[in-house]
Amino acid sequence: MKRRTRKLKDMALESLTLAVEMFNRPTPTAGPQGVLLNLQHAFEMLFKCIIWEETRRIQPRGSGRSFSFKECLGMLRGRGLLNEDEAVTAATIDAHRDGVQHQGADITEERLYVDAMGGLRLFDELLHREFQERLADYPAFAGRMLPIAANPPRELHVLTTNDIGSVRELLKPSKHRRTEAYALLRTVLASEQVANDPLGDVEQPTEGALDRVAKQLQATDDWTKVFPGLARQTLTEDEDLVYKLRIVKRDDGAAPVRIVKPGDSGAEDAAALLKYNLMDQYPFGLKAIAEKVGVNQYEAQALVHLLGTREREETFREFRVDKVTFAHYSHRALKEVRAAVKSGRVGEARIVYGEFQRTKREKNTSR
Description:
Layout: H1 2-24, H2 31-55, H3 69-78, H4 84-103, H5 109-131, H6 139-142, H7 156-171, H8 178-196, H9 207-219, H10 228-231, E1 233-237, E2 245-249, H11 278-281, H12 286-293, H13 297-307, E3 316-321, E4 324-329, H14 331-342, H15 346-366
Helix pairs in contact: 1-2, 2-3, 2-4, 2-5, 3-4, 3-14, 4-5, 4-8, 7-8, 12-13, 13-14, 13-15
């Protein structure tokens, strides 16, 4: 078993080494592809290494395929092994890799640097958290091998402002560089989707969606109205660490992310990539959740209570149709409940929920 763990970890470290080497290579040829492909693969193998240690399998039961990157990310998030900011870092790398590899997306050196440095920090922290090791323990990183940038970005808001400025400049009628503008815009749109939902499936934008967002950017000087998710992110640095950089969500009163429908106030400024139908975002009732994870409805209710699912907007919404209110759960909620079932928390949930109901009955009786 330990050999399997070591093999997976070695593959992750080898890909991470290649990612940094590709970033620092003097020639720009295939630079973004080389960095992102290897960086994403490094995390996929590290995730599988951690999952193997936890569950002794990296394949769905009865399947010959291994867990996908998104499945690994969801499992680690559901088990509490990744916080939301860390999930955003990993999912952003994956989304950028997908756009560059399959859609011809482009990425600026500054944003690629954020991916690389943020990725190194997360990799180092996961390695230490799960295996009590550091990247510096390995020969390739013993000399503090780092991505080198002439002008490393210090603030994500400024970085996005510069990216949007480049897109606007390329879209000017006199430039005739729409293809280049849309290649950059694809990466920004992917980053926005991940900022809104790091566990969701990133949908690469169609040409029509790119057209709509481009028009919105040309119609307003305030890009934060078009990309509210990115507007909530910032960069932080810890000077006492080798791998300093990480992306975090701001909590300073910035406008919250919300999903709008055609006709809603502010819909004209919202990014075209956001889904219009809220019911699509929260498609599961409690019965459906229970059926999909293989528990009864009481156990599903107990798990929802244990995880605090109904307390978070990204996992729970109530919809009123005529005079009837429906409680619905998101895909993220389903992933969290499924992960809790797989990690054997059903019994814990029954105990906690039973105590909650008993306390509630006692309070009602005493009134």
